[in-house]
Specification:
Elements lengths: L4 E7 L2 E7 L8 H16 L5 E6 L11 H6 L3 H20 L3 E6 L3 E2 L1 H7 L3 E5 L4 E2 L13 H18 L7 H6 L5 E3 L2 H16 L3 H11 L6 H15 L3 H11 L1
Parallel strand pairs: 2-3, 3-4, 4-6, 5-7, 6-8
Antiparallel strand pairs: 1-2
Helix pairs in contact: 1-3, 3-9, 4-5
């Protein structure tokens, strides 16, 4: 079974992390773990001054949690462990010593929205609509809530959560603060990403680090909070409602 791939390259002090999965770039446990490892490694790497985080292909940015793994969860321990993968990723991005630029070329769902929210600056295509569909299958965006609410505010998070089956446009996401810039053409977006990344890579690394700490001030409690949220999701995914919803989705 293909659990996804991570590719990392470093050029001119700019590290680019590309994640991929055949199921719309969804996240398996193994893929989450490898992404966390890469972010921690680059955080300590003196050659890296800034990180670009992107997914492979021209379509979906990230479909969220792996459907196959969700439906296979049988115990609370398994459920908590799976959702802890997203908690670990958000925390790795939060404490990373390098600014992370997000490149969002297509739709983002659930955990994919959370990952975008944990980036420090985000470029998006106008095709990059977003949705938090968790409530519709009986769970909820508990683990990613602090990251999404930090970027977009309670009102926007509530709208996304309650209207769980509705796609919001990239321009709506920009208006609410998730995206910093939205582009009609991917090529133009990539050009701007390189311009900004090159500028940042030329700045004082110490100043970048201190500024990032400032951006993430008062989030130290996330280390424990996100794990508590993972337990909630791990319990809900075992519910009769969610199991039925996942089976219907599978059909």
């Amino acid at each position: 079974m293909n659990k996804g791939q991570i590719q990392t390259s470093i050029r001119n002090n700019i590290a680019t992390i590309t994640f991929s999965h055949p199921a719309s770039n969804s996240f398996s446990s193994a893929l989450l773990e490898r992404l966390v490892e890469n972010i921690h490694r680059l955080s300590k790497d003196n050659e890296t001054h800034v990180i670009i985080l992107q997914s492979e292909g021209e379509r979906a940015f990230c479909a969220g949690a792996s459907f196959n793994e969700l439906i296979a969860i049988k115990t609370l321990a398994e459920g908590k462990q799976f959702f802890s993968g997203f908690a670990n990723l958000l925390n790795a991005m939060r404490v990373c010593k390098k600014l992370i630029i997000g490149r969002v070329q297509g739709k983002a769902v659930g955990g994919g929205v959370g990952i975008v929210a944990a980036c420090d600056y985000v470029f998006a295509s106008e095709k990059a609509s977003i949705k938090l569909s968790e409530l519709s299958i009986g769970i909820g965006a508990f683990v990613i809530e602090p990251a999404v609410k930090r970027k977009m505010g309670l009102s926007a998070f509530s709208e996304l959560t309650i209207d769980a089956e509705h796609w919001q446009t990239a321009y709506w996401a920009k208006e609410k603060g998730l995206y910093n810039k939205v582009f009609e053409k991917t090529g133009e977006m990539d050009e701007y990403i390189q311009i900004l990344a090159t500028k940042l890579a030329s700045y004082n690394p110490k100043a970048l680090l201190e500024m990032k700490k400032n951006f993430w001030n008062n989030t130290e409690h996330w280390k424990d909070l996100l794990m508590e949220r993972a337990k909630i999701s791990g319990e809900l995914v075992l519910s009769h409602f969610t199991k039925n919803a996942l089976q219907k989705f599978r059909k």
